[in-house]
């Protein structure tokens, strides 16, 4: 089919031009100061409540979607704690509920709306409760309208690049202002200096850039997270260094396309340079990064990784489809040959690397032949693991307007075949690890079986073993005794 008419709609080009004109992306330091002033006022109020009642007001955050959202939620909770709230893991008996939403697939949006629906009862019992919805879902006009009309008990709503405004909105609402609706207005700036409350004491996220300029034709991200903007190198290095000094063992650099890091800054300093600089910092830790777009995964980056001391031998490189026709329609800007050339070079430089990928099944116009190209691609690429998704039409994207949507049952059947093949490949790749000793970062008792401990290899594979509480948050050596499709198991080799 001819996909050209669907690609490059006018709206995205206008946004891009506007962005190029407004190149200063840092949120003004005075604005951040103003938010800190609101945080102090909120803290005084919450402390007074504590003095009077003997109980602290509590805050709960629920995060849906990607690691960037996890990182954003750690900042939301950081601000809440600064404002005198006590974090809690349950939405009941809280004074503040924050739902950080995702828009990438319909399923994530439905989940967010259903959870918000449940909070109606929590609010009915506790009228003092303030409900905040933020994240990617709320930037879309139809969702914004929906929430305004159908969820009248939602107090505050703002988009993902306006999280720094939480204190101001909260204060105003507390003081009796009307409901607040502040979706992103295409400012899409970078806010530095916000407090953060990290979920873990040994795994951490560091955002290096926000937004995306790629406009893959199925993807909502560029519309809801705006254009690419990199954090300043000094800010990233300082945050990273402080994490290493605090004893963090696994630090993941985040961006929708980390390979574009620095392109918007006007300096001759790219993501490979950043990795090389961070790698110089002394300490016992590993660096992960995600996500890389195959069109810009350079040899320079792969060489830096291969020569580094701390960068984990793990490359996540989303292929999306093995059919060149579909890749073109997806606006991915590479074909399978280019992709596999990159993958082969990664393996040549790092033979023990773990390779993972994302695959979408059922993109509009995908024929049985196209799908078989994807299966053939999996056989050739031999990924250790894949994250596979059934295509979900996103309003406003070019792919959603394509008139050749694949029927749901066909997508579901292809999806099953994809999983079956990948499970075989994952099993074979795990089997090769039997008898080897791997360095594993210990996470503590496994969620599924609290009698065993769980950890992850540097490639992100789950390993089960008998551990002790002192092992949590530390690297341990595990002799792999058994491989399964989704996990490895073995025993600790104590020195
Ligand atoms: N439908 C299904 N999967 C999608 N992804 C992004 N947009 C969609 C969509 N509309 C997948 C891609 C991406 C991952 C984060 O989510 O595979 O790499
Ligand atoms: Fe979406 Fe493509 Fe950007 Fe990834 S690179 S966020 S899939 S538009």
Question: Which key features would you list for this structure?
Answer:
495 residues, alpha/beta, Rossmann fold, pyruvate-formate lyase- activating enzyme, OB fold (Dihydrolipoamide Acetyltransferase, E2P), 3 domains, 6-stranded parallel sheet, 5-stranded mixed beta barrel, 15 helices, 38% helix, binds iron/sulfur cluster
Can you walk through the features of this model?
With 495 residues, the chain is α/β, with parallel strands linked by helices. It has three domains: 23-182, Rossmann fold (3-Layer(aba) Sandwich); 203-431, pyruvate-formate lyase- activating enzyme (Alpha-Beta Horseshoe), CATH 3.80.30.20; 437-492, OB fold (Dihydrolipoamide Acetyltransferase, E2P) (Beta Barrel), CATH 2.40.50. The protein has helices spanning 10-21, 29-53, 67-82, 106-125, 141-150, 166-174, 221-225, 233-245, 271-279, 299-307, 324-329, 336-349, 368-381, 398-401, 408-431; strands spanning 58-63, 86-87, 96-101, 130-135, 156-158, 180-182, 203-207, 209-210, 229-230, 250-254, 286-290, 314-316, 354-361, 385-390, 437-445, 453-457, 462-465, 475-483, 488-492. The strands form five sheets. It has a six-stranded parallel beta sheet, sandwiched between helices. Strands 15-16-17-19-18 form a five-stranded mixed barrel. Strands 7-10-11 form a three-stranded parallel beta sheet, with helices on both faces. The longest helix has 25 residues, at 29-53. It is globular. The chain starts with 9 loop residues before the first helix and ends with a strand. The model is unreliable at 8-23 (pLDDT under 50). Residues 212, 214-216, 219, 221-222, 256-257, 293 line the site of iron/sulfur cluster (SF4). Iron/sulfur cluster is lined by residues 212, 214-216, 219, 221-222, 256-257, 293.
């Amino acid at each position: 089919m001819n996909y050209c008419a669907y690609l490059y709609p006018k709206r995205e080009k206008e946004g891009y031009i506007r962005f190029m004109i407004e190149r200063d992306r840092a949120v003004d330091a005075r604005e951040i100061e103003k938010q800190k002033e609101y945080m102090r006022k909120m803290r005084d109020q919450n402390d007074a409540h504590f003095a009077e009642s003997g109980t602290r007001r509590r805050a709960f955050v629920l995060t849906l979607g990607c690691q960037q959202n996890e990182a954003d939620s750690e900042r939301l909770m950081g601000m809440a704690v600064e404002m005198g709230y006590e974090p809690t893991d349950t939405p009941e008996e809280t004074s503040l509920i924050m739902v950080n939403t995702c828009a990438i697939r319909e399923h994530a949006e439905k989940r967010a709306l259903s959870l918000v629906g449940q909070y109606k009862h929590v609010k009915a019992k506790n009228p003092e409760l303030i409900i905040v919805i933020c994240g990617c879902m709320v930037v879309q006009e139809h969702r914004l309208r929906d929430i305004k009309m159908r969820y009248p008990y939602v107090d505050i709503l703002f988009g993902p690049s306006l999280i720094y405004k939480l204190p101001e909105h909260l204060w105003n609402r507390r003081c009796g202002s009307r409901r607040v609706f502040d979706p992103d207005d295409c400012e899409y700036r970078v806010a530095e200096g916000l407090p953060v409350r990290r979920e873990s004491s040994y795994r951490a996220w560091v955002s290096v850039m926000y937004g995306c300029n790629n406009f893959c034709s199925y993807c909502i991200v560029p519309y809801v997270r705006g254009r690419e903007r990199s954090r300043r190198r000094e800010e990233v290095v300082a945050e990273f260094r402080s994490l290493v000094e605090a004893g963090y063992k696994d630090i993941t650099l985040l961006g929708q396309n980390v390979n574009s890091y620095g392109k918007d800054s006007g300096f001759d300093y790219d993501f490979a340079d950043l990795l090389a600089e961070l790698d110089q910092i002394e300490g016992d830790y590993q660096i992960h990064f995600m996500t890389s777009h195959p069109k810009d995964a350079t040899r320079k980056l792969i060489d830096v990784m291969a020569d580094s001391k701390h960068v984990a031998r793990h490359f996540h490189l989303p292929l999306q489809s093995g059919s060149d026709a579909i890749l073109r329609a997806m606006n991915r800007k590479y074909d399978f040959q280019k992709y596999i050339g990159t993958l082969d070079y990664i393996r040549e430089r790092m033979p023990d690397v773990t390779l993972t990928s994302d695959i979408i099944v059922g993109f509009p116009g995908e024929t049985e032949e196209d799908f078989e190209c994807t299966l053939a691609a999996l056989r050739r690429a031999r990924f250790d693991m894949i994250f596979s998704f059934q295509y979900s039409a996103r309003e406003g994207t070019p792919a959603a307007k394509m008139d050749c949507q694949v029927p749901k049952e066909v997508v579901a059947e292809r999806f099953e075949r994809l999983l079956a093949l990948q499970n075989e490949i994952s099993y074979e790749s795990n089997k090769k690890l039997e008898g080897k000793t791997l360095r594993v970062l210990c996470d503590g008792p496994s969620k599924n079986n609290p009698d065993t401990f769980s950890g992850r290899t540097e490639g992100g594979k789950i390993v089960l073993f008998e551990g002790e509480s002192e092992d949590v948050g530390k690297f341990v050596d595990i002799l792999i005794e058994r491989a399964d499709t989704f996990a490895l198991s073995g025993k600790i080799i104590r020195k």
